[in-house]
């Protein structure tokens, strides 16, 4: 998209007959997503749907686990 901030992307995708969507190539490249990559789908009726690479969530949960573990000592 023209004049869109660097590192941002907006697109329309369609849901196929099997409930699948295609992640645009620009987004796959932006996040280095390869075939077979795991994503986490988060959904909230009020805020919508978001996809995150599993590695982002894994890093987040490990940090939370480490903080919680240090508070218990």
Describe how the helices and strands are arranged.
Layout: H1 25-30, E1 39-44, E2 48-53, H2 54-71
Antiparallel strand pairs: 1-2
Characterization of this structure:
The chain has 73 residues and is α+β, with helices and mostly antiparallel strands. It has two helices and two strands, in the order αββα. The protein has helices at residues 25-30, 54-71, and strands at residues 39-44, 48-53. A two-stranded antiparallel ribbon has the order 1-2. A hairpin with a 3-residue loop joins strand 1 (39-44) and strand 2 (48-53). The radius of gyration is 16 Å and the shape is extended. The termini are far apart.
What's this, in brief?
By secondary structure, the chain is α+β, with helices and mostly antiparallel strands.
Major sheet strand order: 1-2
> Biggest β-sheet, characterized?
2 strands, antiparallel
The overall pLDDT average reads 86
Low-confidence stretches: none
Which bin fits the share of residues in helices? Answer: 25-40%
CA(first)-CA(last) distance: 50 Å
Q: H/E series, N to C?
A: HEEH
Radius of gyration computed on alpha carbons: 16 Å
Q: Work out the helix count.
A: 2
Helix- and strand-based class? alpha+beta
- How many strand units? 2
Shape: extended
Strand content: 15-25%
């Amino acid at each position: 998209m023209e004049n869109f901030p660097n590192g941002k992307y907006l697109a329309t995708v369609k849901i196929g007959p099997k409930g699948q969507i295609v992640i645009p190539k620009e987004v796959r490249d932006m996040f280095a997503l390869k075939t077979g990559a795991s994503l986490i789908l988060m959904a909230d009726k009020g805020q919508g749907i978001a996809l995150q690479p599993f590695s982002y969530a894994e890093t987040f949960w490990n940090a939370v686990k480490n903080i919680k573990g240090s508070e218990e000592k």
